[in-house]
Amino acid sequence: MLSYAFKHKGDCVVLAGGKSVDYIPKEFYRGKFVIGVNQAGRRIEPDITVRKEFVKDEGVPVYASLHSCGSVNHPCNPQGPNITLFDHNDNKGEGPIDTIGCHPSGEKVIVGGSTITSAIHLAAIMGFTTINLVGHDLCQVDGENNFDGYYDDVLAFYEKDGYARWLDSIAWQTRFVSNYVFDVYGAVVVTVSPFFGLKAEGHVSK
Q: If you ran DSSP here, which 8-state letter would residue 26 be given?
């Protein structure tokens, strides 16, 4: 059995890197268990970080795919005292998500085009029953893909507009994993927005 399975209960925050994060006060996270995705810890220190690449000791526990990018043909990510590597099926990018052998029927964690898929599944495995997604915008906000500083000193995989198109192409995977954790664990995934309405507040999304 996975050592971290069902160690928690209640709700958590899965913090992604979308531009809307800039509009959420840091006080929002106080007292909440925060699962940071990739560089989300640059906004606020999370309780754990989930990654598929750029794996290193970050001062908080890191949960990372066994193989870089979640691809079984890629080299293994580095080990370390503060790094927990999880097994997984092959990452098909924008293609189908393979759940064979994934928890709870096995000990693998779901991987997809975005690391958010693994973070959501890990949250459910850990026992959280309400998973609040913050910053998973899946679009540009005011012409920006990410919160300020998210990609400082880190290589982005896509140019700006290409990244926005990629977000649109993997949106279905978030729905897929959200349905999976609801059907299997009874966990509900909720999207948190800092806006009453983008248009009403004068923001532009596309």
A: G
Give the domain extent around 90: 11-192
Amino acid code (one letter) for 184? V
Tell me the pTM. Answer: 0.93
Residue pair 67/89 in contact by the 8 Å Cβ criterion: no
Nearest CA to 48 among 146, 162, 106, 125?
125
- Indicate whether 2 belongs to any domain: no
Alpha-helical (H) ranges within 75-197 are: 116-125, 160-169, 171-185
- Specify whether the CB–CB gap between 114 and 178 falls below 8 A: no
Q: Confirm whether 206 is domain-assigned.
A: no
Sequence-separated (6 or more) residues with CB below 8 Å from residue 168: 138, 139
> For 90-147, how does the pLDDT look when each residue is reduced to its tens digit (9 = 90+)?
999 999 999 999 999 999 999 999 999 999 999 999 999 999 999 999 988 888 999 9
DSSP state for residue 198 in the 8-state scheme:
T
Question: Torsion over CA of 58, 59, 63 and 69, rounded to 10 degrees?
Answer: 0
* 119 found inside a domain: yes
Q: Is residue 78 part of a domain?
A: yes
Q: How distant, in Å, are the alpha carbons of 32, 51, 178 from that of 100?
A: 32, 21, 17
| Spatial CB neighbours of 88, under 8 Å, sequence gap ≥ 6 | 65, 66, 67, 70, 72, 102, 108, 109, 110, 111, 118
What is the number of domains present in the chain?
1
